[in-house]
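Sharing a chain and its predicted structure for anyone who wants a worked example. Both blocks are below, sequence first, tokens second.
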Amino acid sequence: MIARVRPARPADKVPLMGFIKDNWGGHDYIPRMWDEWLKDETGRVFVVEADGVPVGMNRVKFIEDGSAFLQAARVHPDFRGRGLATMLGEEAMRFATDRGVKVFRLDSRSQNWTAHRQIARMNFKESSRINVYEPEEGAEFAPQEGVARAGMDELSRVTGLIRGSKEFRLGSGVYWDTYEATSLSPSIIERLVSGGAVWTSGGSVAVAKMGGARGEMWRQVCFLTGKGEEPVKLVRHVFGLKGRAKAARRMVWIPQGSKVIGALRSAGFSRHGSQILFERTAIDRSRQHR
């Protein structure tokens, strides 16, 4: 078998979606995103060929914190176990490194041990575990008294609450948006506050955004910290806000080990997923050739 990795082309859609469309009982999001991704300048899609036939793909997306996120790795079942996913990952990282990226991240479901072995071969290390909690079906929410959108005059206080929190440490200092992790650096927090995405109640803070794949909208609490019932109060407020787009899902991202999980469970939330965040730094190829 002769294998090579190259940038994706529109003509790759038919052979790739031929097997991808059946993933997860027909619920894989890639068929909905393919056309948009090929036009999206914030990332690049790669395809691996086996003897000239497209049999796998992945995508690298450039994140605003300067990192790159590897996602959407798919290989045809008949060609798995031959190193093709690693080839895709290495090519995506070479592409991003040439554009100045120093940090790479990717995530995987916590029980996808086959993927974890392949991820380890690319020298990624586990950095944290994140849980996704959702309310029970039909749960009603409403705006809460005492909850306010953080203003720029509160930036210093909000930054301290976020970066000094246990959730910040447990979650590798990132917030999650549509299964992509971004560092909660001071400049990113400033952008989130200025964009109206940060809410406070006492000493508790929530980062909340709308997100989702094409055709499905999610209302997300992307980062949450605080004590007692205050974090749940923030969640109830955010999920109770009226918006132009109706959210099909309501999700709370919370790192494993956070005491906020107990409060969410008591409020009727249950875990609907668990992800592992993996990270590695770029290799300085100029030093490799010295």
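Comments welcome. The mean pLDDT is 92.
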